[in-house]
Amino acid sequence: MGLTRVRAVFFDLDNTLIDTAGASRRGMSEVIKLLQSKYHYKEEAEIICDKVQVKLSKESFHPYNMCITDLRTSHWEEAIRETKGGKDNRRLAEECYFLWKSTRLQHMTLAEDVKAMLTELRKEVRLLLLTNGDRQTQREKIEACACQSYFDAIVVGGEQKEEKPAPSIFYHCCDLLGVQPGDCVMVGDTLETDIQGGLNAGLKATVWINKSGNMPLTSPIPHYIVSSVLELPALLQNIDCKVSLSI
């Protein structure tokens, strides 16, 4: 892991610093209420939301043929048609999409203990936010959770040539902060992007946030596993302590 102290930490955003999955569920529950109360849907409301969730999980972010608003409105339109039949209802799809999106953004907040942790860490190391995804979507989340002031730099995958796990985006982050890959630690909840990317780029360490407690059965294998991002400061001290001992 090299004989230098940690100089920079790269953080993933979704489900690492903010509870995106929880915020999305809140959005879906509001749409279910809307469909049941205003449009008198019954169990179809939940079926539609389940279908949209599947479509969101299969979304491929490259390359964009349409803007994210059109793409996601069409998820709702298709889900309504698949469930209810009949002709497309774009207006209802838009109503569902914007309710889901606005509710979701309202619940994307940085917890007070996370803010405190970032503030303290930044006294010791440089902090960078590294998030994959569509430019508009991720910038709206960044604004909603008001996290800009906690970071030295913010990098959105959809604004770069390649996203995590490509090494190029990690090297770009290093250049922005004036550090080497061997000075940096990547923290995130996704093995395929955050951890694999950190390994691909030769970072000092990768830290996987594993809220479920299930251990990975396949590679990539992270250097460290924690159940919460709040365990990071103690872990960084541990990494730096190992450096001191090896020197």
Largest beta-sheet details: 6 strands, parallel
How many beta strands in the DSSP annotation? 6
Which fold name corresponds to the CATH topology of the largest domain? Rossmann fold
Return the structural class: alpha/beta
> Spans with pLDDT under 50 lasting ≥5 residues?
none
- Major sheet: arrangement of strands: 3-2-1-4-5-6
| Topology as a string of helices (H) and strands (E) | EHHHHHEHEHEHEEH
Cα end-to-end separation: 12 Å
Using the coordinates above, name the CATH class of the largest domain. Answer: Alpha Beta
Binned strand content: 5-15%
User: Number of domains in the coordinates?
Assistant: 2
Evaluate the radius of gyration: 20 Å
Coarse shape: elongated
Provide structural commentary.
- The protein has 247 residues and is an alpha/beta fold.
- The protein has two domains: 8-19 and 109-241, 3-Layer(aba) Sandwich (Rossmann fold), CATH 3.40.50; 21-107, Up-down Bundle (Four Helix Bundle (Hemerythrin (Met), subunit A)).
- Helix content is 50%, strand content 11%.
- The chain contains nine helices and six strands; from the N terminus they run E-H-H-H-H-H-E-H-E-H-E-H-E-E-H.
- Strands 3-2-1-4-5-6 form a six-stranded parallel sheet, sandwiched between helices.
- Helix 1 (20-37) crosses helix 4 and helix 3 (68-84) packs across helix 4.
- The radius of gyration is 20 Å and the shape is elongated.
- Keywords: Hydrolase, Magnesium.
- Its cofactor is Mg(2+).
- This is N-acylneuraminate-9-phosphatase.
- InterPro entries: HAD-like_hydrolase, HAD-like_sf, HAD-SF_hydro_IA, HAD-SF_hydro_IA_CTE7, HAD_sf.
- It comes from Heterocephalus glaber (Naked mole rat).
